[in-house]
Amino acid sequence: MIELSAKLTTGSVYLAGEALECCITFCHTTQPEHRNSQSHSDILESLAWVSAQIHCFYSTSGNSGEKTPTIGRKTALEVTSCDIGDVIFHTKPKILFCDLTIPLGESKTFWYRESIPIEAPPSYRGTSVKYSYKITIATQKVGSHIKMVRIPFRVLPISPIMNMQDLAALCGNETTEELQPTNPFSEERKVETTLSMALQVLQNLTARRSPNSYMITNTRGKVGRFCLFKSAYKLGEDIVGTFDFSVGTVTCMQVSVSLQPEEIVTSKSPSKNVNKENSSRSMTVARYHEVTLGLTHSQLILPIPLHITPAFEADEVSLRWRLHFEFVTTNDKLLPNPEDKDWNAPLNVPIETMVWNLPVKIYSTLPKQIQQHSVGNDAYTMYIK
């Protein structure tokens, strides 16, 4: 019996455009019930071949019946669809070895390295659409059936994806090589890759502070002023803002702010259960709530979870994010004057709830920041008999 053990050595979270590395070990072990009755054929075990490749699976909430066709050529294993979903993207399969013989008690280790295309869709579990990534390792023992093991990993988008000219312009690389000052003592300047330029754009977008103020009003008057210090964030950051109720003419009793996704399905799916436009606006991933009666100022601090998917656009679906505000207001005077000696709180208060949506941009962060807060990357094992 051969034990196959595979583990991602570079973590389980990657940016689109990054390279992953997987360590695959084959060990020839003996089954406990056969340890005292070994034959010559048990001393040597042979594998005909082993291949590895990346698959991106796509599924919908109504994914049944007719399957979505695979984009591009089929793989050597003809993996076009399975219980996970339809294969909409895959890398070329790499043959790690052919005709490998492993003596009893010995092991062989191989390395699989592959780069994720920068235009690949991200990992996403939405209301109507799901994307998932797997490394598929397939092998066949001489005289046996093909066996496969799939290792899941997460892909984050690089947003916005633009052509090289736009990336260079945003990074400030519009000058030519001849116009740049040269230093004879410095090392040769490294050539910027698409991934490094996109990361620089991402850092510039999320580091800018551009405070924006919004006056909150309803039909009865001003409720207050809200100030958001910036509109672009990375995963794991805090959305920080302030409320100023001193400028209001209407009493605000409480405020609720929710971080919500807006999922819009754009694919022409054959399933009748998937609409061309479907927004998951009722879903909330983070919430802030505070009773503001009697307050003149308040502060919003809303952490962005690391497990959510940043904004992206794909052929099948697009995802955006927004802040959903709910203000509970009243026109009645609820607080006593300083000169009032005998005052009782009202038993019934007529209230009015108003809602407001404010778009925000959420981008990816570095994978190492996510992996620091995630569970360790375990090895995946399969036994080949």
SS-based class: mainly beta
Name the poorly predicted regions: 64-76, 161-165, 173-179, 269-276
Morphology call: elongated
What does the average pLDDT come to? 80
Largest sheet, in brief, is: 7 strands, mixed
Specify Rg, calculated over alpha carbons: 28 Å
Residues in helix, %: under 10%
Give the terminus-to-terminus CA distance: 5 Å
| Range of strand content | 35-45%
Number of strands: 21
Number of helices: 4
Topology order in helix (H) and strand (E) letters = EEEHEEEEEEEHHEEEEEEEEEEHE
Task: Give an overview of the whole structure.
With 385 residues, this protein is mainly β. Helix content is 8%, strand content 45%. The chain has helices at 40-43, 164-171, 194-207, 367-371, and strands at residues 2-8, 13-15, 19-28, 44-60, 86-90, 94-103, 107-115, 124-125, 129-141, 146-156, 212-218, 221-228, 232-234, 238-244, 251-265, 286-291, 297-303, 312-313, 317-330, 352-363, 380-384.
Blueprint of the fold:
Elements: E1 2-8, E2 13-15, E3 19-28, H1 40-43, E4 44-60, E5 86-90, E6 94-103, E7 107-115, E8 124-125, E9 129-141, E10 146-156, H2 164-171, H3 194-207, E11 212-218, E12 221-228, E13 232-234, E14 238-244, E15 251-265, E16 286-291, E17 297-303, E18 312-313, E19 317-330, E20 352-363, H4 367-371, E21 380-384
Parallel strand pairs: 2-10, 13-20
Antiparallel strand pairs: 1-3, 1-21, 3-7, 4-5, 4-6, 4-9, 8-9, 9-10, 11-12, 12-14, 14-17, 15-16, 15-19, 18-19, 19-20
Helix pairs in contact: 2-3
